[in-house]
Amino acid sequence: LEAEEEEAEAEAEVVETLLDVYLARLEALNDRVERLAANIETTQGVLELTLDNERNRIARLELLLSMAGLAVGASAAVSGFFGMNLVSGLEAAARGFLTTVVCSLGLSASIFAACWRRFRSVSREQRSRLNDVQALKSVLASLDTVGLLLRSRPPLPADPSRLKFELQSLLASSGLPRFGAKELALLGSILSRQREAEETHPTGDMDAVQGPQWAWSKTPFGGG
Question: For residue 148, which of 213, 223, 194 has the smallest C-alpha distance?
Fold first, then answer.
């Protein structure tokens, strides 16, 4: 009986060992599948960004061609006006042809320059808005962490330049991603407005108005 029990235990250990090996292989396969899925998603995102970039380049080229067509069309309209079989009084002008050509070219160049300036202005405005959105996302992602770091510090100064310097030092010492000038200005503006709101309203009113998510900001500004 003891021999049979030992043999059964040995067989059970062998089965358990085989199950552990199979489990380890399944976990390894699962990890490989997850890595492959992550790589596929990353590649898909890169390809989508590449396609978006190519579409933007094509749209930019089409816009430039449209502006050039508009400018050339203005000169064509002038030539069409003078191509009518009507007497205008300019047929016998000494330098009428040269003057018309120069004025047509100047009109085309002016139209193209005006369209180009407008296009650059809109592009700069859109780029500025995108930068503002990225800065806001970065600040909001780190806002709670900054609030926790400010708990153990004295109240922040009211001067904007000193406030910016204090925030920059705090972020540098905490290991958070480095903020640019726009992110620091936005974070300082948020904290300054929160401090002004706390100084204007009592503590109880601030709890009712702002809610519990802003409770961390009372300590940095000396509100409680």
Answer: 213
**Quick one: tokens of 64?**
């430039």
How long, in residues, is the chain? Answer: 224
Write the CA distances from 80 to 73, 77, 93, 139, 203, integer angstroms.
10, 5, 18, 58, 76
Residues 6+ apart with CB under 8 A from 160: 188, 192
Contact indicator for 194, 214 with CB cutoff of 8 Å: yes
pTM for the model: 0.52
pLDDT tens sequence across 50-102: 898 899 889 989 999 999 999 999 989 988 888 887 777 777 777 888 888 89
Read off the tokens for 87: 């007497």
223 — pLDDT class (breaks 50, 70, 90): very low
**AA letter at 125:** E
Q: Token digits for 209?
A: 């108005």
Please give the structure tokens belonging to residue 191.
């904290």
Tell me the C-alpha distance between 199 and 205, whole Å.
11
Residues whose CB falls within 8 Å of the CB of residue 75, separated by 6 or more in sequence, listed in order: 104, 105, 107, 108
Residue 14 falls in which region: left (phi positive, over 0), alpha (psi -120 to 50) or beta: alpha
Cα angle 113, 119, 124 (rounded to 5 degrees) comes to 125
Nearest to 90 by CA among 76, 101, 77, 75: 101
The sign of the dihedral angle between the CA atoms of 160, 165, 168, 170 is: negative
